[in-house]
Design goal:
Blueprint: E1 2-5, E2 8-11, E3 18-21, H1 32-35, H2 43-56, H3 63-72, H4 74-95, H5 98-127, H6 132-139, H7 143-152
Antiparallel strand pairs: 1-2, 2-3
Helix pairs in contact: 5-6
Amino acid sequence: MEETSPGIYLVSGDYLPIQIIESRKLPEDENLWLNSLRGGLKRSSLNVIYEEEKKQGPETPLDAYMDVIIRANKRPYMEVDKMWRDTLVEVLEETGALPQVIEAIVEKREGKWEEQGRERTARNLLARSMPIEDIAQVTELPIEKIRLLAAVH
């Protein structure tokens, strides 16, 4: 067994080489990604990870990795999340955009609720054996959507 760097050991001589990572010995600034997989991550380190994730872009899927980091570090994540939300609200208030953002969110939610209500109505009408074309006319849902609801129903 050979220590290749602080906290990282290489075990050789078996069929496959094995790497052992002792996360407590990892220098935080050099091995932030590996070190973050355990609990006790500092809020500042979590900010660095988020910034790095943004730089990677959507073509680099880090969802599973970020899920592990957040689960292992719930408290700092919640602190950072609250800080970002507070900052966003402050910026929106300063620019006068907060009322428009709130209105857009309300409209989106109302649209979602309306869509769910139409789907519920379509399912009820399907249960009463109403023809799909008539259901489409009543609910203003596309026929394909009603056919999908019928297949599930």
